Predict the structure.
Amino acid sequence: MAGAALEAIMQQKRFLRTQVRQELRNMIPARRSEEDAAIQNHVIASNWFKKSNQICAYVSCANLREVDTTKILAECLKKSEVPKKLFVPRIEDKESHMRMLHIDSIKDLLANSMNILEPTSSNSCGQPRSDVLESTEPVDIILLPGLAFDQAGNRLGRGGGYYDLFLNNYLLHAKEKGWERPLLVGLAYSIQIRSEPVPVSDRDRPLDALVSSFGSLPITPRAIQGMSSGIP
């Protein structure tokens, strides 16, 4: 992508981020709570979630006005005959490096300098936590936050590039292993789903589906199949 074209896209992204952040600040708390509950209930009740074994999910931050994932994480971590393996993000540096580390409990999370909950780098026994890139099994679903989305699956993040780099690394890893690509699912408040196309660059990864308070919106053919019958 040429420099002038890329700069135009970056400018469009900055404008849209400012606009959506203001709309999120103006969102009535009661409406936010209603949408948080509805979105999480849609995820937890879905066949594609129930049939998943390994999940990457973000830990929501109220200060960032992200869709709440508290109930989803608790559902992943609860004891069951077929427990799910949950990986959550840990920021490594300011160069967009992020790891997805396995946790067994919410107690494995500590607040970082920005008051965002992250997994500790080692478990209670002092052993390093397993990274999703070291897993011997494929991830079924990656649940993603964002600032804005469109119905074509384009996603606008906060500008740090952490998820873009992680997704590129994981999808390359999955391809090398011969694994099926995970479903990339964005969680969005209704005001975050835009009627106009969200600006994207070459490195931005489109999503397979969105979940809003209205339910699941499968976008890609695999999501349409997987969300209607559960993940194979």
About this structure: Residues 149 and 193 are 5 Å apart (CA to CA).
